[in-house]
Amino acid sequence: MIIEYYKNQLLSSEMEYFANCISELELKFYASDILARIGIVEQADFEMAINKAAALCRLTNVPVSKHFKVIYKENNKLIIKDWKLSQLACRIILISESNK
């Protein structure tokens, strides 16, 4: 609730950084882990699942930036694209991909 108040105010760069850090605490899951559990390992399928879930959020006026954040991480000496997700984003992905 404090973060929501400050998002509507003009923030100093330090407060804005702090507010972003607090918001990112809700992004607890890696998309690669969630999708691997349901058998999605190909990069194209991975991106499609993320895009579909983000589109569902936009359709329901759920702020995508609050639930999805692109990150890059190392895997076998390669830099790969991944996403940090909120619990809501995980659930949307699992529901939308369970129909396959």
Layout of helices and strands:
Elements: H1 2-7, H2 13-24, E1 29-30, H3 31-37, H4 43-59, H5 64-67, E2 68-75, E3 78-85, H6 87-97
Antiparallel strand pairs: 1-3, 2-3
What would you note in describing this structure?
The protein is α+β, with helices and mostly antiparallel strands. Helix 4 crosses helix 6. The longest helix is centred in the middle third of the chain and has 17 residues. It has one domain. Strand 2 and strand 3 form a beta hairpin. The termini are far apart. It contains 6 helices and 3 strands; from the N terminus they run ααβαααββα. A 3-stranded antiparallel beta sheet has the order 1-3-2.
Average pLDDT? 85
- Tally of individual helices: 6
Low-confidence stretches: none
In this structure, how is the largest beta sheet organized?
3 strands, antiparallel
Content of β-strand: 15-25%
What order do the strands of the largest sheet run in, or round the barrel if closed?
1-3-2
Tell me the overall shape.
Answer: globular
Rg of Cα set: 15 Å
**Strand segment count:** 3
- Structural class, by secondary structure, is alpha+beta
Order of helices and strands: HHEHHHEEH
Helix content: 55-70%
Distance between the termini: 37 Å
